[in-house]
Amino acid sequence: MFTPGYPPASTSPGYECTFLWRIENYSYCWHKNGEKLVSPEFTIDGLDDTVWTLSLFPRGCSKDSIGNISLFLNRTKDEDGPSLFSVRYELSILAANGLSTRFDGNNRFLNGSWSGCFSLLQREEALVRRRADYLPQDTLTVRCKMWWGAPKVEVVNEIAARTRIGVEEVSYVHYTERFPEMIPDDKNPIKIRSATKNRRVLKSCLYYTSDAGVDTVMMEIVPYEQNHVLVKRNIFILEESGEKTDCGGADNLLDDTRKDIQDLPLSLTMEAMLLASKKGWFVGELCLQCECVLTTGLEFSKIERSVYTKPLEAAKERGDNAQTKEVYNVQQKLSACHSATDDLKAIFDNQRFTDVEFKTKTRSFPAHQLWLCARSPVFKIMLTSDMSEKNSNVIPIDDLEDGTVEQLLLFLYTDQLEDLCWDSAMKLYYAADKYQIERLRVVCSSFFVDNITISCACELLIMADTHCDSDLKEAVQDFILRHEEQIFGSEDWEKLAEENPQLASKTMLMKYQKKSTVS
Q: What range(s) does the MATH domain occupy (predicted)?
């Protein structure tokens, strides 16, 4: 707890306190829905011995606020202040462009009570759509302003605090001898030590399960410390030739409910891996390269700075600053400058310094290896491993039309799409899934959800199921059930039921599952 002081006043003045809280590595917050991140405690003499904190819920404070960031001002329970203390307050999440998301409140606080906003900012807004604004250098900035006492402010305090989320990247090779001789559910874990700290960090198990004649290869990665959380994992087979084959990855950083990714199946089945062994990918001993990211709790959380200012001096300084800003006219100067997006689009349009080509059946499209690797893990593997694309500097794309490739490249360079329609969105979604361009996939999915109609619902359901897009699939199924009379009696649904009876039956079953849940 930190208590900045200032000269005592002879009468009861008006107070203003600004508490600025920066949270570093914010996107690695491990908290589930209902779990909170608490700021350092703060107080000042004018708060009559009351002590305060902010509570931020990265995935919402309740089921009703899932998908949102919740923020509250708390009065601590064990302190010596009066039983009731009235303050007017403002809670904000600040953006780099100067705009903020704000909530205003006025409350009488008891010991241990709290007040604030259940849904201050959408997670997707902060983590995806406006990440550059809300998370510069992955730091979220939260501000709480408090006013109490007389209406005229005579005492001003500013307090700055910083909290850092601990993050550790762990890369290791998991060796499994006599892989073809493994027996089901035999985990045989290995212990992984930190490369930077002399301690164990992970337990790694490769095993397979056998259910109804289907053998599934599983990879279990469990942190040793209870407060450590696995948030990202990527698994590759290291072949005898030196090449790497992707066996699947997962992360839960953008999940609104933070799914558990510790024990997941690999993308290759047991049968496929045994076949790979026979083909000489590996001989007897299976080598898996595992790349993981853990959150390790709070690295530190502390008050860094406090400033006491007399209000007349502060007002004069602010007035001088405002006049200086007016003379400088920063907004006009910034609007005249090129943004990073403008410059990247210019590079894309001018096609200078290109060093790789996309080749369709009829055209070639120049591009830049560095940017492709940054935007797509699939392109990165193509252009950095010992594959034909690296040697020829040509990426063949025979399954995409020229217009689709043009739009794909435009998005890779600018995050923008022009003249998006249903047909082009379907083709771009296919490309996004194939090349693991997650942002493009989300943009296309959002377009589908906004523009879905009765006539295209069946087509969209099949596509979502084919690409294992559970979120889009659930949204389409919800739409179908809300329009069941028109859709279940249509020729499109009859065709879907004939070609994919399991998908049709599961969708129709959801209707009765929802009814039973309601009843």
A: 16-146
Burial class for 273, CB neighbours closer than 10 Å (0-12, 13-18, 19+): buried
Neighbouring C-alpha atoms within 13 Å toward the C-beta of 224: 12
Q: Measure Cα distances from 183 to 178, 208, 215, 262, 283 in Å.
A: 11, 8, 11, 21, 18
Least Cα distance to 298 among 229, 223, 231, 224 occurs for: 229
DSSP code of residue 319: H
Buried b (16+ CB within 10 A) or exposed e, 317-326: eeeeeeeeee
Task: Please tell me whether residue 203 adopts helix, strand or coil conformation.
Answer: strand
- How many angstroms separate the Cα of 176 from the Cα of each of 143, 214, 221? 51, 21, 15
**pLDDT tens digits for range 281-326:** 555 577 889 999 999 999 999 998 877 665 555 555 555 555 555 5
Residue whose C-alpha is closest to residue 301's, from 27, 38, 25:
38
Judging by beta carbons within 10 Å of its beta carbon (0-12, 13-18, 19+), is residue 276 exposed, middle or buried? middle
